[in-house]
Specification:
297 residues; 5 helices; six-stranded mixed β-sheet; alpha/beta; single chain; five-stranded mixed β-sheet
């Protein structure tokens, strides 16, 4: 009875009583030597612009590195076997390297240039494990493997893995193609904290405030409207200040407050002299023709 061969690794299965005096030689050549290549062998295959189908001998290697300058998109087809391969796309050129099996309905995987991939073939198709190291140019410390809610890796099937933003990109806050880590988030927040000058000026609408900066802002705003001013023409009364005005309105009615043009001791709600800064509300009558008003903003 002649020898048979395994379907995936093409290892020789010698029949009982066959290969007398050659059984050991065949075992070495057609089993152990093949296993050595399958587990540790490496081969370089040059590509250019032509699709290729890998041979059984080429697939008897564990590591397959594709090289050459691509002048067109190239598809490489694996035999319909179950195997694990470590693939390296060492090609150059502005074109893609796509893997599939010879099965007519096989899925495809695009391997980015410069990126190693662990590829598993299973006859009718193939799959790639995520590249946990990232491309050779990746920033040290980046984690290239992310999963969605179903557990599927975003780097499956040749999809480029997300990359963590660099510190400068995180601080700028303008990239929509990178991801944030807890460290990068903290760095962005720190970069956006208001300075003492920004807090005191009160004009920046993009910086973040801390308790200290808030206290500094309140102090600065309070000191900018001195309640102890002796200027009879002061128009900036502090928020919360109350004054008596000539005129009558219902309680809590918004109003404008003006300096009296004829009396340096009086204010009025009818237009006359210069108008005081801020929003004022009527707070109650104190005479037949006067009432209290309070600045609320």
């Amino acid at each position: 009875m002649p020898s048979t061969f395994t379907p995936n690794l093409n290892l020789e299965l010698q029949a009982t009583g066959e290969d007398i005096n050659f059984w050991g030689q065949n075992l070495n050549n057609n089993v152990f030597t093949l296993l050595d290549g399958i587990l540790g062998g490496a081969i370089n295959i040059s590509l250019s612009n032509t699709d290729i189908a890998l041979t059984t001998d080429q697939c008897s290697n564990n590591i397959i590195q594709f090289t050459g300058t691509l002048t067109a998109n190239v598809t490489v087809s694996f035999p319909q076997i179950g195997r694990n391969f470590f693939i390296i796309n060492g090609c150059t050129g502005a074109f893609t390297l796509t893997l599939q099996t010879t099965y007519s309905g096989s899925n495809t995987i695009v391997i980015p240039q410069g990126v190693p991939a662990f590829v598993v073939t299973f006859g009718v198709g193939l799959r790639s494990a995520p590249n946990v190291f990232g491309a050779p140019s990746s920033t040290p410390g980046n984690i290239a493997v992310f999963g969605d809610s179903t557990g599927k890796s975003l780097a499956d099937e040749g999809i480029p893995a997300p990359v963590i933003a660099s510190q400068s990109v995180a601080e700028a806050g303008v990239s929509n193609t990178t991801y944030m880590s807890p460290l990068r988030t903290a760095q962005q927040v720190t970069a956006r904290l208001a300075s003492s000058g920004q807090a005191q000026a009160g004009t920046d609408n993009s910086a973040l405030m801390t308790p200290l900066r808030t206290a500094q802002a309140i102090q600065a705003q309070a000191s900018s409207y001195p309640s102890s001013s002796t200027d009879p023409n002061n128009l900036n009364q502090p928020i919360g200040a109350t004054v008596a005005v000539q005129g009558i309105l219902n309680r809590n009615t918004p109003c404008n407050v003006y300096l009296s043009p004829s009396d340096a001791t009086a204010y009025q709600i009818s237009p006359g002299g210069a108008m005081l800064v801020g929003t004022w509300l009527a707070r109650g009558k104190i005479g037949t023709s006067t009432m209290m008003v309070q600045r609320v903003s």
